[in-house]
Write the structure tokens for this entry.
Amino acid sequence: MTDPAAYQHPTRADWATGALMAISGECTAACGKWDESFFLYSEETEFCLRARDLGYATQLEPGAEAVHLGGDSQVSPRLWTLLTLNRVRLYGRRHGRLATTAFRAAVLLRETSRAALGRPASRAAAVALTRPGVLNETPGP
């Protein structure tokens, strides 16, 4: 969601950023730990989806505020590539091979078009998406 009005009232979401998240002990006990194979990006999304699968809800609370120091993912080619690959990797864990191939192609098209507009981070992500086996690699720092 990028519409500021969407954050005016409490609402349910599929996932929330891991930068600010309160998780009940009951949910943590039921879901287990975050999946560390998603280094840096997508681990919170995977956790929220797993929690939803078990009947827990991700609730956005407009009164909660935080300042996130950082935010380099959109400008850093390395971080944007990691975010993009983890997004496709997570999709692949939850969907079949054909759907994942189509999703990967759509993400590649998006990143290629952004790269053509001069976005270096998208160029790096597009190159990585074309590498065979890249989604089977374990990302790291």
